[in-house]
Design goal:
Blueprint: E1 4-8, E2 13-18, H1 29-44, E3 50-55, H2 75-90, E4 96-100, E5 103-105, H3 107-114, E6 117-121, E7 125-127, H4 141-149, H5 151-160, E8 164-165, H6 166-171, E9 177-179, H7 184-196, H8 200-213, H9 218-233, H10 236-246
Parallel strand pairs: 2-3, 3-4, 4-6, 5-7, 6-9
Antiparallel strand pairs: 1-2, 7-8
Length: 256
């Protein structure tokens, strides 16, 4: 897999390197598919304990390769391929650490956010570039940003697509650590080795519990609201409340 390098150090740390440096590691259709396959393989291996995700040639990932030749996929199918990679990364049972240098823009920014931990060096530059390309945010960015920085700040990042330094992104709470130039991968390796000293099943459980605790989204909330209203509409008390309002009297509730 030339566009992806997979290295195992024998201790349980597996490093996946996005390897299209001439395109700042922009992702093609085949690249997304290969990435998903690699993640699925890691998920199934008990000897892979921690994933470090990084990029070759001084960049992390510049998002989707908009200059790649068309695949003939419909937009819906194209996004299914992208989302398969997102879900595989987000749902990976092992801890994931992004080691970021250089460009991390568009889906590349959100790829770092989708990891459990993210380290960047001082060369890293981040942007939700989508709006400047006539696109809307993808690779989980709408959920990740809203939950991590709040709705108004998420809209600022998504609407304007400004280039942010690693320090600025850290100050927003979107990075765990900023290190000197060239030191991101080493810091990620230190953390990975520390994670190797923890019980893997308990760590996987903790990761899953934390992800589930933050998993509610706007659509699910609205659907739950609708389900509750449907249930309310079948009760005598709701009918009584509406009748009392229309008749301008106090309701008498019977808890049924």
């Amino acid at each position: 897999m030339g566009d992806l390098l997979v290295e195992r150090d024998g201790t349980g740390v597996v490093t996946v390197t996005l390897n299209r440096p001439a395109r700042k590691n922009a992702m093609t259709r085949d690249g997304w598919i290969a990435f998903t396959r690699v993640l699925d393989e890691i998920a199934a291996r008990a000897d892979d304990r921690v994933l470090v995700l990084t990029g070759a040639g001084g960049a992390f990932c510049s998002g989707a390769d908009l200059g790649a030749s068309g695949s003939g996929d419909s937009p819906r199918r194209a996004m299914q391929i992208v989302n398969a990679a997102l879900f595989a990364l987000r749902d990976l049972p092992q801890p994931t650490i992004a080691a970021v240098s250089g460009a991390a823009v568009g889906a590349g920014f959100n790829m770092a956010l989708a990891c459990d931990l993210a380290v960047a060096d001082e060369t890293a530059r981040f942007s939700q570039i989508f709006s400047r390309r006539g696109l809307s945010v993808d690779f989980g960015g709408t959920w990740l940003l809203t939950h991590m920085v709040g709705l108004h700040r998420a809209k600022e990042l998504a609407f304007f697509g400004r280039i942010l330094s690693a320090r600025e992104v850290h100050d927003l709470g979107l990075l765990n650590s900023v290190v000197p130039e060239g030191a991101a991968l080493a810091r990620a390796g230190e953390w990975a080795r520390e994670l190797l000293g923890l019980a893997p099943l308990a760590l996987a459980q903790t990761k899953e519990l934390l992800n589930l605790a933050a998993s509610g989204d706007f659509r699910e909330s609205a659907l739950r609201e609708a389900a509750a209203q449907n249930a309310n509409g079948a009760t005598e008390d709701t009918r009584e409340a509406i009748s009392a309002f229309l008749e301008k009297r106090e309701p008498v509730f019977r808890n049924r």
